[in-house]
Design a protein that fits this description.
Largest sheet: 7 strands, mixed
Number of strands: 17
Radius of gyration: 22 Å
Number of domains: 2
Structural class: alpha/beta
Shape: elongated
Number of helices: 11
Distance between the termini: 58 Å
């Protein structure tokens, strides 16, 4: 019989489809272990509140949660080790987390998040907090697991937009640029670009050259404005670019100069930069669309529902066994996958990036062996 009787669960960082199924899986399996679960609102922020609130979660409460996108518990990018005080200074408030864990009577915490959220969990684990992690990020850049919650749904969402972009681009003879998320890793850009029929795909793992992009466009569209009467020549081109992609002679493009509590700049705008360069240095019209947060919106796909339920249940088993300081890891993807536990500390600082040698054609800026 488990010595753990009451646990908290929180979701941190960007929302992702699959989080609510994970909470449902956790609650259902925890009830089998006679462990009660409470939801902590808005990520780590909840444990910095002088009067923290917790939502009692049972089977009836979460019965339909696996159908919901986002996170019903809310999220934030709060970092207890680096919060801003009234004077605008960054201070360590992690001691308050310990106080609130005791105040709420929690024996352990299940943390659903990416590297930043799990990084906080690892530091708290070192200080004695019993934690278990569940991997979540639509970028799929977390090491130690083949799958992270949210990726499949985001892949479907982005692929749909890319496909829809081809219609106006073809009608007007545009170069349509679709900018998608992906700070360090280009998994989402690469695979959605291939699935959506993009002509070029630019990812953070391999800096691109503007002149090579222009050469590829000329080879596809010819030297005209992109409007052609030749039925055998394409009238348009779709370019997918990750927000973290950058040119060999350039740098990361950011929305502004602000940084979050984990020190990350707000990326965005490389698609518009590329569009302007195309229009100024080639005869083609170009349009840029930055998809932003809707790409991770909507109900979770079947894969994210299944993976979420399985991740949550495995996390509950780890809690019941007292196997703390670990993250649930998947080898393969549902329904054919194996789950295990890996040390949270061991996955931090080891970003899972696209294997360029295996998958990416750096000369063609595309997936190897696929031509469009």
């Amino acid at each position: 019989m488990s010595q753990v009787k009451r646990i908290g669960v929180l979701t941190g960082g960007g929302d992702a489809p699959g989080l609510n199924p994970a909470i449902k899986g956790l609650v259902y399996r925890s009830s089998d272990h006679d462990i009660s679960v409470v939801g902590l609102y808005d990520g780590w922020r909840s444990l910095l509140d002088p009067a923290p609130e917790a939502l009692a979660l049972d089977r009836e409460m979460v019965r339909r949660w696996d159908r919901d996108g986002g996170t019903n518990l809310g999220s934030s990018r709060t970092n207890p080790f680096r919060t801003t005080n009234e004077a605008g200074e960054r201070v360590d408030r992690s001691a308050e987390v310990f106080e609130n864990i005791e105040r709420l009577g929690l024996d352990a915490i299940v943390v659903c998040g990416g590297e930043d959220t799990l990084g906080v969990a690892a530091r708290l684990s070192e200080k004695g907090v019993p934690v278990v992690g569940v991997p979540k990020t639509i970028d799929k850049d977390l090491a130690g697991t083949d799958y992270t919650l949210g990726f499949d749904t985001a892949l479907r969402n982005v692929t749909d937009v890319i496909e829809r972009s081809r219609t106006p681009a073809g009608s007007h003879g545009w170069v349509q640029i679709v900018e998608v998320m992906g700070r360090h890793a280009g998994h989402l850009a690469l695979w959605s670009g291939v699935a959506g029929g993009a002509h070029l795909i630019l990812i953070p793992e391999h800096p691109f050259r503007y002149e090579k992009v222009f050469q590829h466009l000329r080879a596809r569209l010819g030297d005209t404005t992109g409007i052609t009467r030749d039925p055998l020549r394409p009238r348009y081109s779709v370019v997918v670019i990750a927000e973290g992609a950058y040119a060999e002679d350039g740098e990361l493009v950011t929305i502004d100069d602000r940084h979050d509590a984990f020190g990350h700049a707000r990326l965005g705008g490389i698609g518009e930069v590329l569009a302007r360069r195309i229009m100024s240095e080639t005869p083609y019209e170009a349009r840029a669309a930055m998809l932003g947060h809707p790409q991770r919106g909507g109900a979770p796909s079947p894969v994210d529902r299944l993976m979420g339920l399985m991740f949550g249940a495995r996390a509950a088993d780890a809690v019941a066994a007292g196997d703390f300081g670990k993250m649930v890891s998947a080898r393969g993807i549902a329904p054919a996958c194996d789950l295990s536990l890996v040390a949270i500390e061991g996955v931090l600082g080891k970003i899972n990036i696209v294997d360029v040698e295996r998958y990416y054609d750096a000369e063609r800026y595309h997936l190897k062996h696929i031509g469009m």
